[in-house]
Amino acid sequence: MPSVSVNRAAEMEVFAAVVERGGFSAAARALRMTPSAVSKLVGRLEARLGARLVNRSTRKFQLTAEGAAFHERSVGILADMDEAEREASAGAIPRGRLRVNCNVPFGLHHLIPLVPGFVERHPDVCLDLVLSDQVVDLLDVRADVAIRVGPLQASRLMARKLAASRMVVVASPAYLAREGRPLGVEDLDRHVRLGFSFARSADGWPFRDGEREIRLRTSGDIQAGDGETMRRLALEGLGLARLARFHVGRDIEEGLLVPVLEEFSPGDVEDIHAIYLGQGGRLPARIRAFVDYLAGALKNRPWDAG
């Protein structure tokens, strides 16, 4: 039995190059090795196999019967290895467990409704979906894909933009009937501006009044720890909320929430990305299929500003 330290695939590749190039020197040039290194490797291979593979002379290169048989099998094995790598990276039928982490608002309103279509298209994939508003480390939670909304931090992970959603200030009809509709940014001083209880990348609500940029802090005695809670507070008429259109688009369509101060919007958006482990574009088929499916399904949504 060969030692585990022997790289048999490398030996096969070098020997196949010697045969296909017709000699040690030509193979060495193709492999960017020295002729002596190629010769020594083939010599070690012959010693390990206990058989002469080539007859060496200064004028010609000739395979032995054993060498011809070993070359034929090596070429087949190397081709099988290449095919296995292609299947493991991009060309295989998507199968296996796919662990996906997503924030609660996007997961509830968009990801979960897309799950039936993905499962129908890829029945061999077992989807493990976790919704959480905590920004997780994919390695720590053993996730394959994370859906992130908002600015990305510097990372060695791969990212693919799925969509973008413009921000909007909304309130329930009941709140506006009770407190009045704000017509200008200055009117917000007398309104409850619901805020989040966690640190945001940008503090306050931005507005643009002509050439003037304005940023107002949130106000009131109620805060939310996540976007879905913020949406529910707005639906209950407890104040104004500033959320992404992907989150409240259906509420606006159904008249449950009403956009306000749209003419003062700075037009800022929140990008939506799929984050995943990968290198050089080589991905397990299940990850590639899932990300491709999301990108296609989310394209040209009414709230997509990307």
Which labels suit this protein?
elongated; LysR-type_TF_proteobact-type; 3 domains; 13 strands; 10 helices; D-Maltodextrin-Binding Protein, domain 2; Arc Repressor Mutant, subunit A; 7-stranded mixed beta sheet; 306 residues; single chain; DNA-binding
Q: Main beta sheet: strand number and arrangement?
A: 7 strands, mixed
Distance between the termini: 58 Å
Q: Average pLDDT, to the nearest integer? A: 86
Radius of gyration: 31 Å
How are the SSEs ordered, and which strands pair?
Layout: H1 8-21, H2 24-31, H3 35-49, E1 54-56, E2 61-63, H4 65-91, E3 96-102, H5 104-121, E4 125-131, H6 138-141, E5 145-149, E6 158-171, H7 173-179, E7 195-196, E8 205-209, E9 212-216, E10 223-224, H8 227-235, E11 241-244, H9 245-253, E12 258-260, E13 269-276, H10 285-298
Parallel strand pairs: 3-4, 3-5, 7-10
Antiparallel strand pairs: 1-2, 5-13, 6-11, 6-12, 6-13, 8-9
Helix pairs in contact: 1-2, 1-3, 1-4, 2-3
GO molecular function: DNA-binding transcription factor activity; sequence-specific DNA binding
Protein name: LysR family transcriptional regulator
Organism: Alsobacter sp. KACC 23698
